[in-house]
Amino acid sequence: VLGRPKEELNTVLNALNEHREVISEFYTAQFNGTSGKCTGGVPESHVTRNCLRAGGFPETEAGLRQAFEGGYAFCVRLTRDGINEYITGQTALDYWTEMNQAVTCSFPVNDREVAFLCGTSKNDGGEFIIDALATDGGGIPRNFLLQNGLLLVDWGAWSMEDFVRKTSLIPSRMLGLTDKGHLTPGADGDITVFDPATRQALLTVVGGKVVYGGNALLGEGGTLLCLKEGAEAAKSRGLSHKTIDLEESMLYKGRQ
Hints:
With 256 residues, this protein is of the alpha+beta class. 35% of the residues lie in helices and 18% in strands. The strands form five sheets. Strands 2-7-5-6 form a four-stranded antiparallel beta sheet, with helices on one face. Strands 9-10-11-12 form a four-stranded antiparallel beta sheet, with no helix packed on it. A two-stranded parallel sheet has the order 1-8.
């Protein structure tokens, strides 16, 4: 946010290349997420302060107001349709005040060139240095796996196989979910059908059941992922859960 992002990225890429035992991921969203709460005239979150400084605004409550007014700071607001949206300007300022500042703020601080390099940088052996593509945050609009990931396919930086590996196979392996990330006998049967032209999902199947289709959510709830130590607590609370074994996790097993 504050330094020289591309130089910092090169340092990170070199370190990851030297230590291939480290499994890594990146995300492509331009906006971050932080707190809008202020105490004593200053934002409580140092992330918020850093973002204000990066945008040339004072690291104060008044500076945050100015950032809203200037269209640099955004609030995340839940619509009547249950969709989170970004708002800025006077609308965001009014919402921030109405909610007593207890809102999520976002700033467009994630460098686009850095995101591109995270996804495309390879080592001398032709391997992608960063393993997977992540969403990073479900409470704000930041899931751009299809929208931005497929842009890299269109650009020619990734093959479609690269895209599938980075968005599905490798993330499932990172969590030790050996029955996900592939379509072979015994797999869970998780499928997303998308339109490559619009880069939008058309149909989502989870565990063989359609949970999204026809522009409508059809599923009910989700599944908690937990270790075996937490399974009984999840069961006692009536939570749908799936037990994972970290011994199977790529984060611990490394690349096989």
